[in-house]
Write a structure and sequence with these properties.
With about 210 residues, the protein is an alpha/beta fold. It has one domain: Cytidine Deaminase, domain 2 (3-Layer(aba) Sandwich). About 40% of the residues lie in helices and about 25% in strands. The chain has an 8-stranded mixed beta sheet with strand order 7-6-5-4-2-3-1-8. Strand 4, helix 4 and strand 5 form a beta-alpha-beta unit. Helix 1 packs across helix 7. The radius of gyration is 16 Å and the shape is globular. It starts with a strand and ends with a helix. The model has no long low-confidence stretch (mean pLDDT about 90).
Length: about 210
């Protein structure tokens, strides 16, 4: 299996989702860029460019999941992206395995259509407001099973990813994050979380300037 790159916005959204609902299990969808997939097809590298927060209390309501996935797929196609993975954080602090995660059937369905899909589990035990490690466990679908990805094959888009997400959590940006449960309660809410995307882009720009100077 090849390397998996996590762009900062994807990592930020999934961690902010878990931070917003620490008392709940949460889950979401991971997207990859279709053009980059074609470039990396030979060595099976995968670049996760975005995350879409799904639920914090509707995990087991299949009609809700179908509505969400239909909308996500439509938006993904319009942006030349594909559904390439799934993430989840367990409700119980001690549970950090796939078997304990909500919505596993969604992950299995994704793997049917995208055979090299990834499954990210938030590691609650390492999740703090000041991240000094990734605080995630990653698995990749291979030969019909979810297999752990070596940590040295998990790459962040830039060296500022942990610092950026820590900064967002300390500013309580998680309260601004919208998942599909929020959207279904109020259809005016933006489940694409464009405001957070703009904030992350702004922080990345500042960090790049500081690094180059």
């Amino acid at each position: 299996m090849g390397e998996v790159t996590l762009e900062t916005i994807a990592y930020a959204k999934l961690m902010l989702h878990a931070a917003k609902y620490p008392q709940c299990a949460v889950n979401g969808i991971l997207l990859a860029d279709e053009n980059k997939l074609k470039e990396a097809s030979k060595n099976q590298d995968l670049d996760i460019v975005d995350a879409i927060p799904l639920f914090h209390h509707s995990h087991y309501l299949s009609p809700m999941a179908e509505v969400a996935l239909t909308q996500i797929e439509a938006i993904a196609q319009s942006r030349n992206r594909v559904i390439a993975g799934y993430y989840a954080a367990c409700e119980n602090f001690k549970d950090t395995t796939i078997e304990k995660c909500p919505g596993q059937k969604i992950a299995e369905k994704i793997a049917e259509y995208f055979p090299s899909a990834v499954f990210i589990v938030v590691d609650n035990k390492r999740f703090t407001m000041h991240l000094d490690s990734a605080a995630i466990k990653m698995y990749r679908y291979n030969e019909g099973k979810w297999k752990a990805v070596d940590t040295n094959k998990i790459i962040f888009e830039n060296t500022f990813a942990l610092e950026t997400v820590s900064h967002l959590m300390q500013r309580n940006v998680c309260s601004d994050l919208i998942d599909f449960d929020n959207y279904l309660d109020d259809l005016s809410q933006d489940w694409n979380n464009v405001c957070i995307e703009k904030l992350v882009a702004s922080i990345n720009s500042v960090n790049d300037e500081d690094y180059q100077s």
